[in-house]
Every structure is written in C-alpha cells, then in structure tokens.
Amino acid sequence: MTQQTVSPTARSPHAELEALALRVREHIIRMATKGGCFIGASLSCADLLVHLYSRVLRVSPETVADPNRDYLLLSKGHDVPALYGTLAELGYFPRERLKEHLKTTDSIYWHPNRAIPGIEFHSGSLGHLLSVGLGIALDVKRQQADNRVFVVLGDGECNEGSVWEGCLVAGAHKLDNLVAIVDRNEFQANIRTEELIPLEPLDAKFRAFGWAVKTIDGHSFAELEEAFAHLPYESGKPTAVIARTVRGKGLPSIERRADRWFVNFTAPEVEMLLKELHDGVASQLTSETLMVR
User: Fold this and answer.
1) Is 130 in contact with 163 (CB distance < 8 Å)?
2) Beta carbons of 261 and 290 less than 8 angstroms apart
3) pTM
4) CB neighbours of 103 closer than 8 A, spacing ≥ 6?
5) Helices (H), strands (E): how many in the chain?
6) Cα dihedral 203, 174, 140, 62 sign
7) Are 76 and 126 in contact (CB under 8 A)?
8) CA distance linking residue 243 with residue 229, whole number of Å
9) What ranges in the chain are assigned the alpha helix state H?
10) Which residues pair with 187 in a beta bridge?
11) Long-range contacts of 272-275 (CB under 8 A, 24+ apart)
12) For 41, how many CA atoms within 13 A lie in the half-sphere containing its CB?
C-alpha cells in the first residue's frame, strides 16, 4: 500500500487562516523599506487581526458603512501595516495600493487613516482609542443596538493613564459590548515592558477595574477561536483578552530584538526576509539598527 504524504498545512484545521496570516506578514515585510515601518509590533499582532476580521467581526468590504456593523479600533496605530495587509487581503481595497505606502500621493502611512476603506478612526498618539471605543459602545447601548466594539491595545500603551480611565468608565457603565485585546509582546519601543514600568499582573489589573479577562496565546488560532467564540465573558462586564505574542513573530532574525522595533530595510534585505519567513532560517541583516542616542 502506498502511504500518502500530508503536508503540515493540510493537516491544520486552521490552514486557511495560517495562509492568510502568512500573506499579511509578506505585506508587512514589503512595507519595511523606502522609509520603513514598525515591523516588530506589526508582526506580533498579525494573527490577532487576521482572526478578528475573518472569524469574529460582523463587518465586510460591503458593510463598512452599515450602522449595524461591528467596530475595530487599532489603538496601537504604529502597527498599521498588519491592518493594511489584512484589509487588502480581504478585499477592502486593492492589494496593489499597498505599494503606495509612504508616498505623498496616498494615505497609506505610518498610522491609521480613515481615508483607507475599513479603518474606523485615526490613531497615532497612544492611549486614546479605548476611550473612543467606550464612547461608541455606550452610544450603541443607549440606542439598544447590538454592535460590538473591539479595541486593540499595545502592552506598552497600557502605561498611559488614559487607558485605565477608560477601563474605569467602561466598567462603571457595564459595557459588555466592549472588548479590549492587548497585544502582550512584552516590549515598549526599544525596551522590555517589565524593565521600564512593570505591568504584571496585567489580568488582575483589568479585573480590579471590573472587567472579565482571559489570557491566551495570541498566535494560536485554536485559542483565538475559543477566546472569541462566546462574548461577553460575563454579562454586564467589558471583556479583556490578553494575547501573549512575540514581537517580530515569523522572522527569527528580528524576533524579540529591541533594536529592530522600527526598521528601514534595503531592497535585498526585504527579499532575504521574505525567504526567511518561509524557510525559518535567520538572515544576515546589515542595515542600521535603531538605538536611542
């Protein structure tokens, strides 16, 4: 009897999402040149955005203006290459438009811009969009509608006092239609979060502000599926999902490297990293690293 060979991807129940996430990471790498981008945090949240837009959010390219849609706000706006890549792959705008990244003739820039289809709100300065999200969620409640509001936060962003003011108000108003997802990649710019202003125990902090909390592996589509299958976790409480991730996920040459949080690769390096994304062999990068001087 001839034994059939089954590839690892074919065996995976999440092969479609894994393939989509791979294409999003390819887009992120291609945006990391000619001016560069915040590649590490973009790669850490790619799986989160792919899962949310593919399996959770009640929104599509055809319903971006539907008053009954769900909302996603990217509060950690510097990770927008992951959002651009996800939206392009899912048909919100042509993939070819990603080549306009950082050109003055388009709005594909370092931070989210509402001129891009699918982007709900501008962001750049950290700590603002949880409050925007709770405002939308409160309005939804008052209209007795059932829209849900998802806000993606950076872990370093949780050092902003405005984040905790938002948590306090959301808990006080029992906004169980509000979901905060923390991309817990353990870095804040070019230093580890626990070496600057320690955040742990982060789950206990959310609970103390009246939120229901779950901590998951943010790169596991199985855990993402389980985490978002039944919302809210508790009636009358906003939900927080702490997604433990790896900054630079998918590229061994830059994973967890503080000096590669923002990069501007050469064209040959981009080609090397695209190969590295697929074969897992670390590239020998020579471009200047970013350090605080």
Assistant:
1) yes
2) yes
3) 0.94
4) none
5) 11, 7
6) positive
7) yes
8) 15
9) 8-11, 15-30, 39-44, 46-51, 80-89, 129-142, 161-172, 193-196, 202-208, 221-229, 267-279
10) 192
11) 273/29, 273/32, 274/26, 274/29, 274/30
12) 31
CA end-to-end span of the chain: 65
- b or e along 75-89 (b: 16 or more beta carbons within 10 Å of the residue's beta carbon)? bbbbbbbbbbbbbbb
Q: Is residue 229's pLDDT more than 50?
A: yes
DSSP summary character for residue 282: P
Closest CA to 280 of 261, 258, 247, 253: 253
In this prediction, residue 6 carries a pLDDT of 47
Q: What sign for the dihedral angle of Cα 229, 178, 158, 288?
A: positive
The values of phi and psi at residue 128, to 5°, are: -100, -35
- Reference 29, options 10, 11, 46; nearest CA is 46
Q: In this structure, what token pair is assigned to residue 217?
A: 């592996």
Q: How many degrees, rounded to 5, is the angle at CA 190 between CA 78 and CA 213?
A: 65
Residue 146 phi/psi, 5-degree rounding, is -125, 20
Cβ 206 vs Cβ 240: under 8 Å: yes
Q: What backbone phi and psi angles, to 5 degrees, belong to 164? A: -80, -25
Cα–Cα dist 125/128, whole Å: 7
Best CA proximity match to 41, nearest among 219, 185, 224: 185
* Residue 196: C-alpha distances to residues 42, 158, 181, 278, 292 (Å): 21, 12, 21, 34, 14
Tokens of 124: 């750049």
Closest CA to 246 of 29, 40, 26: 40
143-154: pLDDT as tens digits: 999 999 999 999
Which residues, including other chains, have CB under 8 Å from residue 281's CB and lie 6 or more apart?
252, 275
DSSP for 140-168, written as a single string:
HHHTT----EEEEEETGGGGSHHHHHHHH
Structure confidence at residue 7 (pLDDT): 55
